[in-house]
Design brief:
Helix content of chain A: over 70%
Number of domains of chain A: 1
Number of helices of chain B: 3
Oligomer: heterodimer
Largest sheet of chain B: none
Largest interface: A-B, 62 and 52 residues
CATH superfamily of one domain in chain B: F1F0 ATP synthase subunit C
CATH architecture of one domain in chain B: Up-down Bundle
Order of helices and strands of chain A: HHHHHHHHHHH
CATH topology of chain A: Four Helix Bundle (Hemerythrin (Met), subunit A)
Structural class of chain B: mainly alpha
Distance between the termini of chain A: 36 Å
Radius of gyration of chain B: 19 Å
Largest sheet of chain A: none
Radius of gyration of chain A: 22 Å
Shape of chain B: rod-shaped
Number of helices of chain A: 11
Chain lengths: 404, 82
């Protein structure tokens, strides 16, 4: 049976709408649940402030909901806007748009829930600081929302730019761009939530340090944002570079692999950098005398946690810029797609692991600053060992691209 | 394009190699990070034992690395031997 192109475009739009709303609902629901749980605990601790706590919870939940609303908007547009030119490239772009938004909303929904929950908990301890908590929570949650906004921008571009005139490479490239941005936004969304949550918790401990805590939160969250920005850069390259001079096979598989390598590897680095940044905010509130030392080890720890996503970016660039001999051999396509998948998945664990080591080292520099040197050394040795599996994944990916 | 049996098997081996190393790298990466985290915590509490704690950390990480190395070996076998 042969399915007409028009049917494929409709099929992709509807499936994309399902992915967008289905996946996009996960994060916001988890984040809002966390905020409600913290609010309940706070009210049981301080029933007198229940009105303020409920208000704070609702404001926080409303922001965490934003990511899911983005997903709803994209889903409704996919259902009813009708997809442009009738071409298999349009079908791929619409499916990519749905996946970008759906996956991309997960992290920001969870991340924005963390400051909301911590602000409710803090309010039980310092009821008179309601305004300060609201400010810090709003800034932190807004920053956590950024990766979902990147994903929405990519989704809009995939839906409303007419790519149908391009070469058939665009089928794989646009689908890869959607997956890259969607996966790439997960880690940074969750990661940016950690410093935001810890800044709210820190405010309850050191009300006088509000401004400094916000500064440190913004520095930490900005670094945690990097993997999502890598994913956005690769998505833009996949959408707007001209691949028509490459042979259709295996370049199509390579472009899909390029999207997966950066997107998946960004998950671990985003979460890992966020863990370190969270410990940095906690450390500033714990010991205001050691802010400089804590900032240094936090940034070093975050930078090392970033490495797996840089490996992913490297493999993506190799896959996009390598010149392939034209071949109809199925094997060559499998090898380059597997290379992208291998590097992407292989980067996740090391990114999270490096972040966990950095988190602990940062929080102990704040408690025991005399041991800063030995903690920094131990952190770097531990991170280097935990990096090894990401390096193995890169070796196998390079072998799949160049050797087999 | 027509796909022959032998080619399909080789393609499955490549995909298997990628998945083996990619998925196999997740566990040791997280696990070794946890070891590193606890070592930093322990050194923060008890700095006199830093040498002993670093040694223990490295031994623990080396053991946790083993599954990553198994994945590497299996991936290399799939790529170059079978």
């Amino acid at each position: 049976m042969s399915i007409e192109i028009e049917a494929w475009v409709k099929l992709a739009a509807f499936a994309g709408a399902g992915f967008s709303m289905g996946l996009g609902a996960i994060g916001a629901a988890v984040g809002e649940g966390y905020a409600a749980a913290k609010a309940n605990a706070a009210i049981s601790e301080k029933p007198d402030s229940s009105g303020d706590i409920v208000k704070m919870m609702l404001v926080g939940q409303a922001i965490a909901e934003t990511a899911a609303i983005f997903a709803l908007v994209i889903a409704v547009l996919l259902l009813f806007a009708g997809g442009g030119a009738v071409s298999i490239i349009t079908a791929s772009a619409l499916m990519g748009a749905g996946l970008s938004m759906g996956l991309g909303a997960i992290g920001s929904g969870v991340g924005a829930g963390l400051p909301a929950g911590q602000a409710c908990a803090g309010l039980a301890r310092q009821p008179e600081l309601s305004r300060n908590f609201t400010t810090t929570m709003l800034i932190g949650a807004a920053v956590s929302q950024t990766p979902a906004i990147f994903a929405m921008v990519i989704a809009f571009m995939l839906m409303f730019i007419n790519f149908a005139g391009g070469s058939l490479h665009m089928v794989a490239a646009l689908f890869g761009a959607g997956l890259c941005m969607g996966f790439g936004a997960i880690g940074s969304g969750v990661g940016s939530g950690f410093p935001a949550g810890e800044a709210c918790a820190g405010l309850a401990r050191q009300p006088a340090m509000g401004g400094q805590l916000t500064t440190n939160m913004l520095i930490g969250a900005a670094v945690s944002q990097t993997p999502a920005i890598f994913a956005m850069v690769v998505a833009f390259m996949l959408m707007f570079m001209n691949f028509s001079n490459l042979p259709l096979h295996p370049a199509s598989a390579a472009l899909l692999g390029a999207g997966l390598a950066t997107g998946l590897a960004a998950i671990g680095s985003g979460v890992g950098s966020g863990l370190a940044a969270g410990a940095g905010c906690e450390g500033w509130a714990r010991n205001p005398l050691t802010t400089g030392n804590v900032l240094v080890i936090m940034l070093v720890g975050q930078a090392v946690s970033q490495t797996p996503s840089i490996f992913g970016l490297l493999i993506s660039f190799v896959l996009m810029f390598k010149s392939y001999p034209a071949t109809e051999v199925f094997l060559a396509s499998t090898a380059v797609l597997s290379a992208g998948l291998c590097m992407g998945l292989g980067g996740i664990g090391s990114g999270v692991g490096n972040g966990m080591t950095a988190q602990s080292a940062v929080s102990w520099v704040a408690r025991n600053v005399e041991q800063e040197g030995v903690l920094m050394r131990t952190m770097l040795v531990g991170q280097a060992v935990s990096q090894s599996t990401a390096i193995y994944a890169m070796v196998i990916a390079l072998a799949l691209i160049f050797l087999v | 394009m027509a796909i022959e049996g032998a080619e399909l098997i080789k393609a499955a081996a490549f995909l298997g190699a990628g998945l083996a190393m990619g998925l196999g790298a997740i566990g040791p990466g997280v696990g070794e990070g946890m070891v590193g985290a606890k070592a930093c915590e322990a050194i923060g509490k008890n700095p006199e034992e830093a040498g002993l704690l670093t040694r223990t950390m490295l031994v623990g990480q080396a053991v946790s690395e083993s599954t990553g190395i198994y994945s590497l070996v299996v991936a290399l076998l799939l790529l170059f031997v079978v």
